[in-house]
Amino acid sequence: MTLPSMSSPSMISPAMILHAPRSEAEVVEIVRGALAGATPLALQGGGTRAGFGHAVAAEAGLSTSALSGILRYTPGEMVMTALAGTPLEEVEAALAGQGQRLAFEPADHRPAMGTQGVPTIGGVFAANVSGPRRIAGGAARDSLLGIRFVNGRGEALSAGGRVMKNVTGLDLVKLMAGSYGTLGLMTEVTFRVLPQPERVETLVFSGLEDQAAAELMAAAMALPADVSGAAHLPESVRGRFLAGALPEGAATLLRLEGHAASVAIRAETLTRALGARAPLQRLGPEQSESLWRAVRDIHPYAEDGTQRPLWRVSVAPMAGPGLVAALRMEAGVDAFYDWQGGLVWLRMEAEPEAALLRGLIAKAGGGHATLLRANPAARAAIPAFEPQPAPLAALAARVKASLDPHGLFNPGRMG
Amino acid sequence: MSNATSHAAEGPGCAPIAFLPPRPDVLARRDEIMAALTELVSAGGVVRAPLALKPFETDAFVAYRQPPLAVVLPQTTAEVSAVLAYCHSARVPVVARGAGTSLSGGAIPQADAVVLGLSRMNRILEIDLENRTARVEAGVTNLSISEKVAAQGFFYAPDPSSQLACTIGGNIAMNSGGAHCLKYGVTTNNLLGVTLVLIDGTVVTLGGKHLDAGGYDLLGLVCGAEGQLGVVTEAVVRLIARPEGARPVLFGFDSSEEAGACVADIIAAGIIPVAIEFMDRPAIAICEAFAKAGYPLDVAALLIVEVEGAEAEMAAMLAEIVTIARRHGVRTVRESQSATEAALIWKGRKSAFGATGRIADYICMDGTVPLSQLPYVLKRTGEICAGFGLEVANVFHAGDGNMHPLILFNANDPAEAAKAEAAGNEILKLCVEAGGCLTGEHGVGLEKRDLMRFQYSEAELAQQMAVRAAFDPLWLLNPSKVFPLEGRPA
């Protein structure tokens, strides 16, 4: 596989034609035009996650930037519909105004990816961006109820709806979530939202080794405490959170959210069961918010002034620490953990060590690694997404062809 | 439906439903196919005795019966793979089957199809409490997973009413829900991985114990695909810590509108109970007569609201809910005082379909509507049924808008049966027009196949069929289901 090298994370070079349609009809027209001219399109939202996957070999760009606005929001139904290019910030502000929020806590990838621009709600779903609350509230794809999109035949289609339970036909909504604009352009998204909690609190356990931290997080998740975030920050990254205000040693975090009385009861449950394992401190809402935002946004490895390789690794929760330990035997690496240990952020000291890492993941029981950041040469040489076994890759290719038969959208992006 | 090229199966009192015409060459090769299948599976894996074949003729959509060509019960993924590879090369349609509890006819065979039953693949392979996962074979029943981990304080969340019998493979095929999905989601939100056998026998693994599978979300696509994309032989599902306590509370109202408005206000107040179930007067009477659950009989609508957590948490949440209910003129509030009483309250609700079946024949609709449309859709449902001179009992998951009107009729009266079907179709059309969908959890199957155009445009159906063809280009897997028979790709 040869891939164009990338000098900047942005997919769309200044010389490219950039279409910014104002309506679904215009999207259809542009796609049909591209179809007629056999000119592939680079699809983009705000471009803040443009560095996910590989550079796209396209002559023109298709942006959702002019498809912006909240179309329908009924707080009593906990459902919102917005055009795909609506800034995430606008969505979150509208929800906050009604005491609600997104369930899946999407990250802002700008600092870690070195990108600029405005994150959009469509981009969040196209990349299935799910933050710390994923372990309790599901991924972005779990919140996405319905979409309108334009496929590679230039047809405007709808899938799903605005209700939480819907098994009518194939679930193309899930398929489109996390497909990085390679199957079609989502023009409109309808998603479930949740009430904001009355109280947020974080329990910080100090000084635990990675393995002991994983065991503590597993024990916490086994209790009836509705933990909505479980992360472990080894000593090497601890200082990067709360401006160094976390207690000495590694920090293992458990977040509780909900009605104040309920949070207090659950904090007691956790303290009783786990308090003997390590020194324990409780953080209130303000510090909790800042702390979890930093976990969400991969803060320790963001704006670190380097292009040192950054991996996002998804494994079984208990497999995280073992994987990192095995990797350390052979390469310089720094790591921290979210999702009870199952989401591992790895920053390599030098080379990405893709083969080594992926081999170790397979040995650790499976999962996958996504290369988010590296120097251009490394990025060009290494499949950004985990290569799939041949039968699965062939199936995925057939699925892609069923939506985008002429390979019009984001060619090369998913490898 | 009249269609010269299609084959009809008939049940008592129901209009014939069309199947794809059986392939004469397949019917003619029956003995040869049986012999080949016998070679591919372990002893006892091909069902032969006419009496033993009977149960495979239908599922819980019992209005229709159709004997299959053959029934094969493999014991391993390798056997499933061999059976599918053979059927693929011999061009024989395959209908996968779990426990046969489908309410939409998803497991009903066709005359030229091999039924691939997963009932002998019923082992729980691994419980991993630290990673909170269970790896199970497809024929494991839904409830047995929760039972297996109950002592350790865990459970598997989706809880369809048929959970004692229905299998996880069937749950995945239908993306089954249940009463508690308001908080915990449906099958797709609790499924981490599957082993999927494609029609040509290829075995692929999607996902695993990690929380997000790589590549396209084929797991999300397979879940709810009604056995059209492949046969799931194993699954990795998510286990959840069981809350300290759970308490259902009964709220009786003088009108359905008040009950509906109360539901909307509970949600708007930022309270998410684990379940909010709704019953109207006819449903209350039917369920109470059967379960003796202590439901009040003097109210027009009943809500079962269940909260979970520690004692103090439940008390705090209930106090808020009661305050909201009082604003809507609630007439009766009854908290369950014991685990037995709580179980009884749920028994009444979960036996609603069975209890209704004791007093009349019924068609159960499964449309979902946006919460704000509930009162309107309920009212119109009553009017539609009255217009046909039929009674309707409503029992459904109010928290998520998933309605289950039970249209009562006499199956021995063909005219009344036709009216019931017509009323059902109008109700489903109404659900779609109100911004909802045809089916929230029972699936399209045979039952709603010909109504798909209510919800989807031709281009949308064509796109779904194209995705389907990426998995099964010859349309051998459960081919008479989900998509209208006309307008399919040649």
UniProtKB/TrEMBL annotation, chain B:
Task: Note whether Oxidoreductase occurs among the keywords.
Answer: yes
> Which key words are in the record?
FAD, Flavoprotein, Oxidoreductase
Has the keyword Flavoprotein been applied to this entry?
A: yes
- Cofactor or coenzyme needed: FAD
Entry's InterPro entries? FAD-bd_oxidored_4_C (IPR004113), FAD-bd_PCMH (IPR016166), FAD-bd_PCMH-like_sf (IPR036318), FAD-bd_PCMH_sub2 (IPR016169), FAD-linked_Oxase-like_C (IPR016164), FAD-linked_OxidoTrans_Type4 (IPR051914), Oxid_FAD_bind_N (IPR006094), Vanillyl_alc_oxidase_C-sub2 (IPR016171)
- One Pfam family this sequence matches: FAD-oxidase_C
Which PROSITE patterns does the UniProt entry name for this protein? FAD_PCMH
Q: Which domain of life is it from?
A: Bacteria
Annotated ranges, domain FAD-binding PCMH-type: 64-242
List the Gene Ontology MF annotations in alphabetical order.
FAD binding; oxidoreductase activity
Q: Which PANTHER family match?
A: GLYCOLATE OXIDASE SUBUNIT GLCD
Full protein name: Glycolate oxidase subunit GlcD
Q: Which organism is it from?
A: Xaviernesmea rhizosphaerae
